[in-house]
Each structure stands twice: as C-alpha cells, then as structure tokens.
From TrEMBL:
UniProt organism field: Glossina palpalis gambiensis
GO biological process, one term: oxaloacetate metabolic process
Domain Fumarylacetoacetase-like C-terminal: 143-348
Protein name, entry field: Fumarylacetoacetase-like C-terminal domain-containing protein
Residue ranges of the TM segments: none
Keywords: Metal-binding
Database matches in PANTHER family: FUMARYLACETOACETATE HYDROLASE DOMAIN-CONTAINING PROTEIN 2A (PTHR42796:SF4), FUMARYLACETOACETATE HYDROLASE DOMAIN-CONTAINING PROTEIN 2A-RELATED (PTHR42796)
Family the entry assigns: Belongs to the FAH family.
GO molecular function, a single term: metal ion binding
Amino acid sequence: MAKCLTKLLGKRPSSRLSELYITIQPHTFRRFLMRNVLGVGVTPYLYVCMWLSDKKPEELKKPTLRFIQFLRGNDERKRLGVVSEDGNTFAELSGGACVSNDFLAFLKQGFSSQELLHKIDRVQCERMNDRLILLPPIINPGKIICVGLNYKGHCDEQNKQPPTDPVFFSKFGNALVGPLDCVVAHSVTKRLDWEVELAVVISRKCRHVQCKDAMNYVFGYTIAQDISARDWQKRNGGQFFIGKSMDTFCPIGPAVVHSSMIGDPHNLYLKCTINGEEKQSGNTREMIFRIDELISRLSSFLTLLPGDLILTGTPKGVGMYHKPPQYLKVGDVIQSEIQCVGKMINQVIAP
C-alpha cells in the first residue's frame, strides 16, 4: 500500500508517523482508487485519512479524552469513540461501556473525567485504519453561537475599534460538516472566505452564571472553520445569518478535546492555510472577550445546554481584508489547526 500511495502522491511517505490526505473525486479513477488501493466502499467526495507508523503495537499511545463520532466502513450506525493524542489508536466507547453512541446524549449522561478514563481502560483499543469515517464530533447541537470581532488583529485589519460588548450571531446546524468533509462553493456567492476558530463545547445546563464559575460549564474544545459568503454577509442591512449559514459552512473537528487535556485555552496557537500557504496565524490570548466572559454574558440572556457550541472568534488574515481581497475557489484546500486540539482539512467543491 505504501508503494501505491507513493506513486499517487508523488513523494515517498515518511517511515515515521505521518498524515496522508487523499482527495477522492467522483469519477472512475476515484472508484478504482477506493477499490484497489484503499479497500473501502465508494462514498462521494470522501476524504480518506491514513495514519502510517513504524511503531510496534505495544508502543502505540492509548486513547484518551479526545472524543470522535464515526462510522465503520459501510455501516451506517453512528458511533462514539476516543482517540490517542498522536491519532494512531482509538477505542469505541459506545460498544459496551454503557455510553450513548450520540455525543449530545453522552454529555447528558454526566460522566466525570475519572469515570471516563476508567471506561476507556476497559474497552478494546484498536489501531487507526482507513475504514474509519470521521463525522462532525457533535451532530445537531442546539445552538451554534459565533462571536464577531473578538481578536484585536481582526479588528485592526478592518480599521475598526474593538467592540465594548461581544458581537454575537449564529449559524444553523445545516452548516455542520466533518473535519475531512468538503465545503460547497454555492453558486449564489462569489466571495467565499475562511475563518479558523476555537469552539467551546458546553457540558451542562447553564443560566445566570458568573465569570468566576463559567469555566466549570465547559466540557471541551474543538476546531471550527467559520466559512462565510462575504457578499451575502454585507447584504440585507449587514444581517449575517444568510452569509454564515449556508450548507457546509461550518466544518468542525476532528475531536472534542476534554478541558482537562488543555492547559490554558487562552494560550493556544491557531492557524489557517489555503493550498499550503499560511493565511492566518494567531494565539487565543488575543481574544478581546475571554471564554468565561462570553459564557457569563450569554447565560444572562438565554439558557445554554449540553453540546451548545460557542465559536470564539478569528485572528487577522481573513481573505476579505487581504490587499487585493482573496476568496476561496473550487479545488482549494483549507487546513485549520489549533495547538493541543488538532487539525482539519476541507476541500472546496462545486455545487
């Protein structure tokens, strides 16, 4: 298989741990590739992520509190699992650990981190393989709340003063796709843009919470890519909803990383590259309104529920404010990465 991948990718795979992403296109060659090289079922526009390692099985790291939703090959049953930090191994929690197969239902079960670690120790650990299809780690969240202008650099590139109050807007669940899924360049927009963001996952019901207690309501973190149709964002009197909520406009993943695995969520590097060229690079310490303040402020107006997502803003470097402006086009590959959380790769495709 390594020789086949070498020929297809035009380079020699590393003998050490590496990530190889192959974009599978919907034509005859894709079917040949899936059947003869990867050995998995044919799925339109599927990205297949292979982990290759020269480590012996006994040297592989154990899965930890990094939660994924996934399918096994052609089996349509959704599953919940955990992966190791290096992405080499995983374990299915929903197979026999009295854990729901749905992440939202799992959150409502209210397991402590120690209980979860105990359950992980008791389930079978498996080597990552090419039959695993990653889904968005959260499916059908009750709310997707976004925060605009929450990084000083993003304000500066627009020649705007930082806001005195958080700027909240929303996306709808139809926008969600997984960490290796495609982003559709809908024909109604000509100005498709990128925004890498740290997303907060709420753990339990939250209302009228003070800042000092707010972080106790955070289950964990994931990566979000706030895809935006800038032409529609500026229409309708500046109402963001249409420009932010088109189908596939919110890739998230690859995992929800438990808060105990993140030292300081306000000191994480994040970046976005397009076709390998770095466009955004920042650190979450640049947030104008920190996570605890965002949760406290939101909970003073509405009830936050398990699985609700808060996208905390983006650093400078979005396409609209490059000189001249730069926008996504069909075939572009978006890579979003946040320190300690992981990486996503999404390709832009035609409708």
